[in-house]
């Protein structure tokens, strides 16, 4: 059973690193709502790099050489990132829902997001949800390892 949990854990880490797609998609939409999507960009970039670092530590075997309570650190890391990513997912969903909001710019009324930006933001919202779900599953596995 432990080997199955370990393999699930590695797969979840891989999908968390794929959360970098959120960062790429939001950036490609030209960030029409910088106040909302700035936080999404910050969380996705930070989580992407720290997940890569964490995965590198585990795959390289450095965790056996560093004397620390890795089960607690794993739980704390996934809890913090899950909370931040859940907030980022909600903000990205809110930004996407403003598609039909009309803006008055120099006497021309146009939607806040054009169709291309809307489609990109929908994809970013879906990937943000999937990444949040992966962090939530990893959080449950980390809790299980920390508190047997």
UniProtKB/TrEMBL annotation:
Keywords: Membrane, Transmembrane, Transmembrane helix. Residues 3-147 form the MARVEL domain. It is a multi-pass membrane protein. InterPro entries: MAL, Marvel, MARVEL-CKLF_proteins. One of its GO terms (cellular component) is membrane. The keyword Phosphoprotein does not apply. The chain crosses the membrane at residues 7-26, 38-63, 75-98, 118-143. It comes from the Eukaryota. It is found in: Membrane. This is MAL2B. It comes from Rattus norvegicus. The lineage of its organism: Eukaryota, Metazoa, Chordata, Craniata, Vertebrata. The gene is Mal2B.
């Amino acid at each position: 059973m432990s080997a199955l949990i370990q393999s699930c854990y590695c797969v979840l880490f891989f999908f968390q690193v794929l959360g970098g797609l959120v960062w790429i998609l939001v950036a490609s939409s030209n960030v029409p709502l910088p106040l909302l999507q700035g936080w999404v960009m910050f969380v996705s970039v930070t989580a992407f790099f720290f997940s890569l670092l964490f995965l590198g530590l585990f795959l390289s075997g450095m965790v056996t050489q560093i004397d620390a309570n890795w089960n607690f650190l794993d739980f704390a890391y996934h809890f913090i990132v899950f909370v931040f990513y859940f907030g980022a997912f909600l903000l990205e969903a809110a930004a996407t829902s403003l598609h039909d909001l009309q803006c008055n710019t120099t006497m021309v009324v146009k939607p806040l997001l054009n169709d291309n930006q809307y489609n990109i933001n929908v994809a970013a919202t879906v990937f943000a949800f999937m990444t949040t779900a992966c962090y939530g599953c990893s959080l449950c596995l980390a809790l299980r390892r920390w508190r047997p």
